[in-house]
Amino acid sequence: MNITPTRITVIGTGYLGATHAACMAELGFEVIGLDIDPVKIATLNAGTVPFYEPGLNELVGRHVESGQLRFTTDSAEAARFGQVHFIGVGTPQQPGRLAADMSYVEAAIDNMAPHLSDGDIVVGKSTVPVGTAARMQHRLNARLPAGARVDLVWNPEFLREGFAVEDTLRPDRIVLGTSNQRSIAILKHVYAQPIAQGSALLVTDRQTAELVKTAANAFLATKISFINAMAELCEAADADVADLADAIGHDARIGRRFLNAGVGFGGGCLPKDIRAFRARAGELGLEDTLSFLTDIDRINTRRRQRVIDLAEQALGGRVSGRRVAVLGLAFKPDSDDLRDSPALDVARQLHRRGADVRAYDPMATEMAAIRHPGLDYRYSLTDAIRAAELVLVLTEWNEFVRMDPVAMGELADQAIIIDARNCLDADAWKQAGWNYAGLGRQHPVYEDPQLVHVPDTIAELTGDLELVEK
Ligand code: UDX
Predict the structure, then answer these.
(1) CA of 183 relative to ligand 1 center, distance in Å
(2) How far is ligand 1, taken at its centre, from the CA of residue 50, in Å?
(3) Could you tell me if the CB of 81 is within 6 A of ligand 1?
(4) Could you tell me if the CB of 159 is within 6 A of ligand 1?
(5) Yes or no: domain 7-204 corresponds to CATH 3.30.310.70
(6) Pick the CATH number of 239-462 from 3.40.50.720, 1.20.120.530, 2.40.50.140, 1.10.8.420
């Protein structure tokens, strides 16, 4: 094989794989995407993406139509087609354990290996425990056709859901873990366009490349939990975490991004990646080294409980039988991903406590209704808020950020709102008569003073914070 491949295989067609396949087609390559799920493959071959990711549907549709991109369940066909084979399968948390489930990565290697050709390269993109690439190279070598040599490179993916296309076509950095000069040359060709447009290229060994991804996600999770710990302090000291984040964020060494306090992080990456990272450190005999990630995880899940506690306080101590509008189910805006979503978790816990939860998300309602029947799902914002006794904002979709507090006040039965993402204009909501509570901000003042600690200084100022009964 020369170093200018034109055909690419992408194994796994989830958020990562489907996006990578479509973006490789966009970069001019012929691409086959492989998955074990025939329904997903049929949907993709019809030019439609089975999940919501801005811009991806259009990209897949266009390249499927032109014939440059297709999808299959046949691993032999896919392995024979490509010269560069990207692995983008999931590495979910193992049930009941911290460690990641590597069976999909192993299956991808096993199924592909016998059909690969000498000189092909396999490029791992999935998030894996350090040491996986070396292990997978042995596994691959043991299954290759006689005489074939195939290099396995690690090339972690940093895409954010909601920005997946942009992050894949114009990543801030491209990390290649290999010492094989030919593989480096091939991947420089594959990524020639983003590199020419300014993406940084870093070449390192495979284990460092694996660690780059887990370290990046652990750092991001730590940053979020740090500000959420500050939110706990702010709540106790009657300070304001949003002002605090703005002020410390001006220090370029700290930076303002990923310092939004709220109901915490979720999704298919951060929570399971910090757990798997800890588990891997333990396997390496470094039990203490990443033990702080346990606290990061605990701080994060405490925020969900805090929202539930606030909801109970706001409703006089019990949520049972009370009408609660839940705005947001996805783990973040511009995504319909419900994996480890704080919003869905809070909604379900309130439902379990007997609340009459009316849940709405601009993109994830249908999926949530299929996966978690039992909640009362609403298909518009107004339907969710109508007659509510409490409104919870759990995902900062633009549709919620832009809500008109006056109009919403006319729909709700009680003007009490908990902004669990600190995404609303608190003053505008208070002026419209709402009892507004953010997280890590001024103590909310509810009807029954027994239910919430109200510092004297605040109690004196409660004129515009009193609960508004309608
Ligand atoms: C993350 C990483 O950002 C990405 O680089 C990696 O490839 C995959 O994992 P993603 O899971 O798409 O991406 O979401 P991200 O934007 O990182 O947000 C993760 C969670 O943190 C969301 O639930 C979000 O709401 C929350 N978050 C983020 C906060 O609570 N506060 C913040 O300031 C930022």
Answers:
(1) 31
(2) 21
(3) no
(4) yes
(5) no
(6) 3.40.50.720
Say which amino acid occupies 71. F
pLDDT recorded at residue 403: 98
Instruction: Please name the residue whose Cα sits nearest to atom 5 of ligand 1.
Output: 158
Strand partners, 93: 100
Indicate which atom in ligand 1 lies nearest the CA of residue 15.
12
Which atom of ligand 1 lies closest to the CA of 267? 11
Q: Whose CA is nearest to atom 25 of ligand 1?
A: 332
Sheet of strand 416-419, all strands in order from the earlier edge strand to the far edge: 376-377, 356-360, 323-327, 390-393, 416-419, 435-438
CA separation for the pair 408, 412 (Å, rounded): 6
Known catalytic residues are 269
Residue 298 predicted with pLDDT over 60:
yes
- Alpha-carbon Rg for the chain, nearest whole angstrom, is 24
For the whole prediction, is pTM greater than 0.70? yes
DSSP-derived secondary structure letter, 330: S
pLDDT per residue over 418-465, tens digit each? 999 999 999 999 999 999 999 999 766 776 544 443 333 333 333 333
Same fold? 7-204, 239-462:
yes
Ligand 1 pocket residue status of 426, Cβ below 6 Å:
no
Q: What is the pLDDT of residue 468?
A: 30
